[in-house]
Fold EcsC family protein.
Amino acid sequence: MTYPAKSPDQPVTDAVHSNPQALEERAGATGRMLLKVIDKAVHMQSGAIENYVNWLRNRNPEASPAEIQQKLDKHFKLIASGTGASVGAASAIPGIGLVAGAAAIGVESLVFTDAAAVYTMASAHLRGIDIRNPERRRTLILVVAVGASGTMLVDAAIGDLSHKSGASVTAMLTRYGTPQLKDINNKLLGVALKRVGKKFRGMWIGKIMPFGIGAALGTWANRKIASKVITNTAESLGPLPAAFATPAPKAVEPPHFAELQAPAED
């Protein structure tokens, strides 16, 4: 069988050899939103993420890493439920329900995905993974967004190092510099755009249903996505340490969501 030759000027946009600019042009509205959120998320202040985890430890000084992870899970689910219900409630307003619901979905999606990014990086930090490198943060977010296939893609990129060391695939990423991480991220991005775009499009219709039905479906939909993010995080980032290496920090300032979203200086 003969396959047509690819023009050298044509950008490659498959999941294995992706061109970020070409992917953005072809991503559609949902895909472009995801790209912007990922770009924003990787520039969050890593110190603020670390402070979030330290604050939880300060409030629960005897808690194990697994117990702190459960608190991260609970907080993320609460944010997810709140944003989903707000969109459904907006859809129930007589006369402007559809417009209000559609407009709210854009804001709600940003809040939800920002919360998912914070959750992912906090979970990584809890496992001792260095989150200070922006490209590594991008990799962590994309791997969790894609799920098992993302982990396999990274595993293929780094070879059998993780199998020899016994460490998780994402933990092995700390050995890689920015150029190698960028190559991995370009490949992950193509897969993530397809996966996440389908998830949000599938949930969108239920959230704008009128007469209050959308509120219930919006909460259910976001809880379902949040549960999937939590599962992907646990599977992708590897096991938690049995105990903390250092005592719980003292005198930690409570985190502010605005601070977590502030641009990083690193």
User: Anything to note?
Assistant: Residues 1-18, 84-108, 160-166, 203-217 have pLDDT under 50 and may be disordered. DSSP finds twelve helices and no strands in the chain.
